[in-house]
Model the fold of this input.
Amino acid sequence: MTWEVAVYWLLVLAAGTALVDLVPLDWRLPERGAAALLLGVVASTLLSLALSLWWGVGPAAALAAPSLLLGAAVGVTARSWARRLRLGPNAWGSWVAREWDRSGTRAGLVVALVVGGVFYLIFTRALVGSVGSISASYPTVWSDWSVHASYAQSFLLGHNLPPRDTLEAATGLRYPFLPDFQSALLEGMGQNFWGALDIPSWLISWSAGALLWQLAYRVTRRSSAASVALLLAILGGGLGFVGLYGDGCQQLARTEPGFSAQSCTSLSLQTPGAATAFVAHLPVELTHLPRSYDGQNQTNPPVANLKWYEPLLAFWLPQRDFEYGMGLVALLSLVLWEAYRGRRKGLLVAAGVGAAALPWFNPFGYLVIFLVGLWWLGRQRWWRGLGLYLVLLLLLGLPRMLYVVGGPHGELANPVGTNLYPQLDVGWLARAATICTAARFNGGAACDALYLAGASPVTAVSYLAQSLIQPSLWGETAGFWLANTGIFPLLALALVILRRVPSRVRDELRDLELIRFWAPFWLLFLIGNVIVTQPWNWDNTKLLDYWYVGAAIPIAWLLCAWGSRGWWRVPATLGVLSLVLSGLLSMDMALIGQSSLSQVPTAPAHLAFAGRQEELVARAVLRHTAPTAIFLTEGQPTEPVSILAGRTVVLAYDGWLWSYGQPLRQRVQAVEAIYAGCPASGSCSVGELLRAYDVSYIEFEPGDYNNITANLGWYEAQHLPVLVHTKSYLILDVRSLWPAKR
Done:
C-alpha cells in the first residue's frame, strides 16, 4: 500500500464521518462507523468521477474528492464541531462512556468485529496475486470479476472518460460501474491490481453487514434477533442439505473397499463416518450445479428444482454492485424507519439524497428503497413527508435510472439466447418457462410466461387470470419456495397468524410494527414471482434477495422471541440451523477444500485469472497501442486485452452482454464474418466491417467462449504486422485491410 492509498482511506473515513454528522439521527458508535465508511466511499467516488473528467483517473481526483467533501461538511457543521472541541478531553471521555453503556452498542461492536474478520478472510483472497500469475479462489469470482476488472482497467489504462462500454465498443455504459471506478482510483494511486478489487469489496461488505445488524436491532430491539437476521442474510438457504447423507454414503462407497453403494439406502454404523469425511471435503461439482448444496445423484436429486444459491457465494462475493446496494439499502432503510417512527423531515431529506446515488451503484437497490419509503410513509398517511422524499429521490436519481433501463432491450431471436423481457411469469422458476408473444398467446398457445412488448393490458390481464385459476400453479409455487428457502415461508405465515392471537408475542409484534416493516419487502417477493425483469430469468434473484433480507428480520425476531424461554430454545435453534445449513455447507466447500468423489481431498481450488502469457499480451498492448484502440477478440471471459490492458473490444463474452439485455444479433454476425476471412472467390466484406467497427487489431486466443470459428490461415496469408505472439495468443494489426476512403 502506497502513502496515497493510506491517505485516501483516511480522508474517505473522515469525510464519511462528517457527512454522517449532517444526518439528524442519534447514531450508536458502531453504526456511525459503518455509515461513515459507506457514505465516505459512495460520495467520494461520485465526486471523483466528476473531477476525473477534467483531471483524469489518478491521485489528484481521488484525494481531492474526499478532501472537498470533508471541508464542505465540516463547514456546514462548523459551530457544532467548535462546540465539541471547546468541551475538552473530559467531556469527550464522558461521551464515549455513555455511548459504551447504551443498549446495543457492545453487541453491535462485537458483531462488527466478527463480521469484519470473517469477511476479511473471505474477500481478501477473492483474487490472489503471485509472481507471474493472478488467480481467483471462487468460481463465481472468476466468472464475474472479469467484468469488473475490465471496467476498472478501462478507466485507468483505456482513458475511458466520459464512460463508454468497453466490452461492446461504441455503446453507452449502462452498467452500474462506480464500484469499479473506485477500484481504478485505488490502482491509480499505486494499489496492486487484485487489491484494488479485493479491499473495497471487503470494506463495503463489512459496512453492509454491520448496517444490516443495526437495522435489525433498531427494528426488533433484540441483539439476538439482529444476529440471526444477519446470519440469514449471508447464509440463508433451502433444503439442499438433505442430500448430505446420500453424498457421504456415496463417498464411502468410492473410498472404502467392500462397501456397497446399495447400503446407502439405509443407515449403518459406517454412515456417520462417511458423512463426516464428506463434509470435510465437499465435491468440486458443488459449484457447477444449480443447488445451494448438491447431491451427486442428479438423475434423482434429493430435492428437485433448487435455484436459490447461498447469498454470500452468489451475491455478496461475485456481484460487487450488490455489496454497495445492500449497504446503501440497509443504511437508507434504517434512516427511513426512524423518519417514519418519529415523523422527522430531516431524515427524509438525507434518505432522498442518499437514494439518488443507488442507480450509479445498484439499480435494483433504487427500486427497493423507492418501494420501502413509499409504503411506510404512505401507510402512515404522512403525505408531505412522502412528497418531500419522492421529489428528492426522483429528481436526483431518476435521470440515471432511466438511462440504465432505457437502452435496447434485446431481440426476439437473439443468437446467444432467448431475450424476451420483461415478461409476466406467474410462479417464476417454479414452472417451466414456455414464453409466448401476445400473438401466440391470443392464438391459443399454452404459455408459462407472456412477453410484454406488444401485449395490450387486456392480454396481460387475460394471461394473469388464466394462470391464477390453475390449481397446479399454487402447489408448484409453494413447493418451490419451501424447497428453496426451507421453513422460511412457514415462519412468515406463523408470524401473520400470531398477530391475531392474543399473547405476549402479539403485543410485542404490534408494538414493534413488524408487519408494517416487512410488508414492502413481501411486495418485492410478489413482483419477483410475477415479472421477469432480466433476459436471464434467474437474475430475478438480484431483486428477490432484498426481499429475503428484509423479510428475515421479523422472522429472526420470531425465532428469538419464541426461543427465549425453556425448552422452546431447542426447536428455535434447530429452526435457525435448518435455514443456514445449506449455506454453511457451501462455505465449507469454498473455504476448507474440494474433492471429487473419486479423488482424495485437495486444497481449495484456485482458478487462473491471468498468467505469464496474459501479462506478456497486456504489456505489449499497453506499450504499442493507443488507449482508445479497439480490438476484435473471441470473447474469452478473462481476456488480457480488457482485464489487464483496459482496451475496448468489439464483443466481449456474449453471455455477459446477453444477460445485460444488449441486442447482439448484428454484432455477433459481424464478428463471425470477420473471423471467417474472405472466400477464395466473390465479394468480401471483412475490410468494410473492420472499418465499420473501427477495429485496429484482431486477436486469436485459447478457448471458444462465443462459439466463433476463426480462419487463422487466411489472416496469416495476408502477412499482417504482428503485435504480439505467444504460445496461446496471436494479435495482428488489421488496419491495412481497411478499404481506402473515397
